[in-house]
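Design a sequence for this backbone.
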């Protein structure tokens, strides 16, 4: 939408306004409240159209150190929330192939485990030789 800007008056709580002002002090990407609100509104609409905004909740367990790091980054205005930070981290990891590497690594670990378990069950006992338990019993139970 290009052309002349239209003036819009909105009502916002003092707490929300303080949150916006605090974010703007730490993030120089936006020249004014208006620019920030305009950008945030259009960003929200774009994500809604792309079906990124979902009313679902996902619980993620993270280490205390990671949580502290993310909270510091949020405090400095780098992210708006833990959820947005984790989303960006996951998106970045996907773009860089880190998620694929992790999946391949896990798949190989499971294959190795399956082979080990399969080998254990596929081994046939040497009935002539006996087992350690049989040897202990033959020697008197000790």
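Sequence:
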């Amino acid at each position: 939408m290009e052309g002349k800007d239209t003036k819009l008056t909105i009502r916002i709580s003092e707490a929300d306004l303080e949150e916006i002002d605090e974010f703007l002090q730490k993030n120089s990407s936006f020249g004014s409240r208006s620019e920030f609100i305009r950008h945030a509104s259009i960003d929200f609409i774009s994500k809604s159209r792309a079906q990124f905004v979902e009313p679902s909740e996902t619980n993620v367990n993270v280490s205390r150190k990671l949580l502290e790091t993310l909270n510091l980054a949020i405090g400095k205005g780098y992210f708006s929330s833990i959820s947005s930070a984790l989303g960006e981290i996951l998106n970045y990891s996907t773009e860089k192939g880190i998620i694929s590497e992790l999946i391949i690594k896990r798949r190989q670990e499971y294959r190795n485990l399956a082979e080990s378990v399969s080998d254990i069950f596929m081994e046939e006992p040497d009935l002539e030789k006996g087992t350690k338990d049989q040897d202990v019993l033959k020697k008197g139970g000790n």
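The longest helix spans residues 98-122.
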